[in-house]
Amino acid sequence: MALATALALIVTLVIPAGGAQAVDYPSWQDVQNAKSNTAAASAKVTEIQNLISNLQTQVAQTQAESEKRGAELRVAQQNYDDAARRASDLQAQADASKATADAATKQAGQLAAQLYRTGGTDLTVNLLLDGEASGTGADALLSKLGSMSKMVERSTGVYEEAQAATNSAQALGDQAKIAQTERETLNIAAQAAMVAAQAAAEAAANALAESESKSVELAAQLAFMQDAQASTTAGYEAGVAERARLAAIEAARVAAAAAAAAAANRASSGSSGGGSAGAGLGGGYISSQGWAVPASGRITDGFGPRAVICGSTGCSKGYHSGTDIGAGCGAPIYAAHDGVVTYAGPNGTYGNYIQIDNGGGVSTGYAHIRAGGIFVSNGQSVSAGQNIASVGMTGAADGCHLHFEVRVNGPQINPQPFMASRGATLG
C-alpha cells in the first residue's frame, strides 16, 4: 500500500504542467507608431495594461504552485525521516534481542552438556545402578533423583526462554526489514517531491525575474501612451542607462565586500589553528577542516523529541530534527561547507529553506529564512562561510532563528557533535 501510494505521488509530482507560452512584448517603436493613431493608441494601452496584469498573475500563480510543492516536499521528507527513525530503532531492538537469544541459547547448551556429563542419555538407570553399587540406600537415591529433577526442570525453563528470545529476535528482525523497505519507498517519494519542488521554485523565480525586468518598461510605455503631451522616450532611456550604471557600481561593491569578508574568514581560520575551541565562535567562522559556523547566536533548541511548535503555515512534529540557533531577524546565514545547492525555496513548515549537498553523503539544511532572504539558487556552487541567506521566522517558527540540520546518507543526525568534531562548534 505504501509503495502504491508513493508511486502515485511520484507520478503526480514529476508530470510537468503545460509550458508557458512566449509573450510578444511591444517594442518602443511599436508604441511610438501607435501613438500617432488614436484608435491604435487605445488598443495599445489596453494591450500593455493586460500584459502588466498577466505578469502579476503569472507571478502569483507560480509562487502559489511553489508553495504547494514546497508543502508536499516537507510532508514527503517528514514521512521519510519518520520511517528512517523507525527502521533504525527496530534494527537496534532486533540486534539487542538477538544478543539476548544468543546468550540464552549458549546457556541452554551449557546446561544440556552438564546433564549429559552427569547421567548420559538414561539418567534414571544410571542413578539406580549407582545406588545399588554404592549401597547408599533409598534415601540417597531419592536425594539424587530430586536434584536431577530440579536440574531437568531448570534445563527445560532455560530452553524455553532461549526459544522465546530467538522467536522475538526473528520477529523484530522481520519488522526491521519491512521498515527498511518502507523507508526506501518513502525516500524515492521524497526525492520525487524534491524534483517537483525544485522545478516549481525555479519557475517562480523566473516569473518574478521576468516581471521585474519587463514591468518597469511596460509601465513606462503605458505612461507614454497615456501622456497627452506625447513626450519622447529619451528621459526614460536615459533613466534606464543611469540605473544600469548604478546597479553595476553596487554589484562591484557587494562583490568586493564579499571577497574581503571571505579573505578575513580564511585569515581568521588560519591564525586560529582551526581547533574545536568550544562555544563562542562567530557565524561564518571557518575551521581548518573547512567547516563554517552557519549563524551567530546561542542554541535555543537541540536535536531530539520536543513539544510541538506552531507557526504561520502549520505545526511542527514532536521530534526536532536539527539545532536551532537564536540569531536575530535579518542576520546572515552562512554555508556550513563547500557544496552545491540542491534546493532553494518554500518547504512547508520549514518556511523558506535551502539544502546544500556537501559531498561524501553529507548535506546541510537551513530553514525559516525570511521572505526575500534566499541569496542562492538551485544548482549553484557555494563556498564554506558564504552568505547564502538571512534569518527569518517563516514556516512553523515562533521567532526569528536558524533551524540548521545535517543529513548523512539520507537520515538526519544531531548537528552539534557533527559540527564540533569539525572544529565549527555551534552556539
Automatic annotation (TrEMBL):
<dbReference type="InterPro" id="IPR016047">
    <property type="entry name" value="M23ase_b-sheet_dom"/>
</dbReference>
<feature type="signal peptide">
    <location>
        <begin position="1"/>
        <end position="22"/>
    </location>
</feature>
<dbReference type="InterPro" id="IPR050570">
    <property type="entry name" value="Cell_wall_metabolism_enzyme"/>
</dbReference>
<dbReference type="Pfam" id="PF01551">
    <property type="entry name" value="Peptidase_M23"/>
</dbReference>
<feature type="domain" description="M23ase beta-sheet core">
    <location>
        <begin position="319"/>
        <end position="415"/>
    </location>
</feature>
<keyword id="KW-0732">Signal</keyword>
<protein>
    <submittedName>
        <fullName>Cell wall-binding protein</fullName>
    </submittedName>
</protein>
<feature type="coiled-coil region">
    <location>
        <begin position="45"/>
        <end position="107"/>
    </location>
</feature>
<dbReference type="InterPro" id="IPR011055">
    <property type="entry name" value="Dup_hybrid_motif"/>
</dbReference>
<keyword id="KW-0175">Coiled coil</keyword>
